[in-house]
Specification:
7-stranded parallel β-sheet, 6-stranded parallel β-sheet, globular
């Protein structure tokens, strides 16, 4: 009787329609679980309405996927918020790598002037108890994967706290289950999305039918479109006549499900050859995905991998960037990549961009939004295509410029500041006790 009453009285109508597979018992169990989460979110909202200060903890991992800079800074200057960065452990490549990554990320956030602490005390081999020591009202996740973060910081341990996630990239993959139906997506209080394309995917593929999803625009592109001034030290040559080209390879040198973007193994030596051949006309920055080095350690070994990365740092017209990239994008003249997130992100700077293709059909890997973005790329099927693109960049030839400009203005540009949209939604939801928007 209790389950029937809970089903009738508590579970929203939208949730009653969400399960189409499995036994009726399993469906009801999941409905009850989601209803329980909703009840906890309601209680958390009620508690916050009575508070003058809202404690916000950002669970930060890689510095290169940090997209909350402006959200944090708005909060830091706002009377209602008390933000803090907690650098969390990355556990899937061993303890040595965890400590290395944590220290790198800590220095990154500290240099930005954030209020930042580490979750792990290396000297005493202890971890922060978030609930007791930080008492968060809202937790912001920077990565959705349960296998990446230490389990004590995963979302299932914070069901009585309001939880928020902004994707670390503008999602382009057709792996809809992985991008909209993981545990974290369904347990969140707010899932902020960049476009209506992505809201539609959330409604269609999440178990909770996207009831917690809100279109805010993507905070990661604000510095690319707001006239942000930059001073990028990645470029070694201070000569405006020498073009600045980024090469950004993905980490999927081996397929991860349907995600198989990388052309790195094919072009790794060729791109160095291009840098040497055009040393008087172009300079290059190697901008690998942060996971590529770990994958190469497994495939090549540490010695070969480190030597390859060092080569990019050693040439007079090349460099390596494995961190923040906004200034790199803004100061560049063009990019060559097989990334997932950069398919859309680099378009915001409205400069020539080329996508290298492997043997897998892009339409099998990408969603409809991504395919529209790729239509505004130059495409490389071989080495000859890449060299032709480099020559065009050197000679200021850009046939796609007019088409690309229209697409950026008509499709990509957000309505207002994404970060401010997020802050406004949080405060409005607390003040007016709005559980979900959909």
């Amino acid at each position: 009787m209790f389950l029937i009453k809970l089903y009738r009285d508590i579970v929203p109508l939208k949730l009653k329609k969400i399960f189409q597979l499995g036994s009726r018992y399993e469906k009801l169990k999941e409905l009850v679980y989601l209803a329980t989460i909703q009840i906890k979110h309601k209680k958390a909202l009620r508690r916050l309405k009575k508070k003058d200060k809202i404690n916000c903890v950002f669970f930060a991992l890689f510095d290169s996927v940090w997209k909350y800079d402006n959200v944090y800074r708005i909060m830091d200057n706002h009377l209602r918020f008390e933000p803090i960065i907690l650098v969390c452990p990355i556990v899937n490549y061993g303890k040595e790598n965890m400590i290395l990554r944590m220290n790198e990320a800590y220095e990154f956030y500290k240099q930005k002037g954030y209020n930042v602490i580490k979750s792990y005390d290396e000297e005493n081999d202890t971890y922060i108890d978030v609930k007791k020591e930080l008492n968060p009202d809202i937790i912001f996740y920077t990565n959705p994967y349960g296998t990446l973060i230490d389990k004590r910081y995963f979302i299932n341990n914070f069901r009585d706290v309001l939880t928020v996630y902004v994707p670390y990239s503008i999602n382009n993959s057709s792996a809809f289950e992985a991008n909209y139906n993981l545990i974290l997506y369904n347990l969140l209080w707010r899932h902020y999305l960049p476009t209506n394309f992505h809201l539609d995917y959330s409604v269609r593929y999440a178990r909770n039918k996207g009831v917690n999803s809100v279109v805010s625009g993507y905070p990661g592109i604000e510095s690319l479109i707001n006239g942000h001034s930059y001073s990028c030290e990645d470029w070694k040559l201070n000569d405006k006549r020498i073009k600045k080209i980024i090469w950004a390879p993905h980490h999927t040198i081996e397929p991860v499900g349907i995600v198989y973007y990388s052309c790195f193994i094919r072009y790794c030596d060729f791109m160095l050859d291009m840098a040497i051949r055009y040393k008087d006309k172009a300079q290059f920055v190697f901008k690998p995905h942060p996971l590529l080095k770990n994958k190469l350690y497994l495939k090549w070994g540490k010695e070969k991998t480190d030597a390859y990365y060092a080569k990019w740092e050693s040439l007079p017209n090349t460099n390596l960037n494995d961190g923040d990239y906004e200034d790199l994008f803004l100061s560049s003249d063009a990019m060559i990549h097989d990334s997932g997130s950069f398919i859309s992100e680099y378009l915001y700077v409205n400069k020539p961009v080329m996508r290298t293709l492997n043997e897998i059909d892009e339409s099998e890997k990408m969603n409809g939004f991504a395919m529209e973005c790729i239509a505004n790329h130059y495409l490389a099927y071989n080495e000859k295509d890449i060299e032709h693109f480099i020559q065009d960049v050197i000679n200021d030839i850009d046939p796609l410029k007019e088409q690309r400009t229209k697409f950026v203005n008509d499709v990509l540009m957000p309505k207002g500041s994404p970060s401010q949209n997020i802050i406004n939604d949080i405060l409005d939801s607390i003040d007016n006790q709005i559980l979900y928007r959909n």
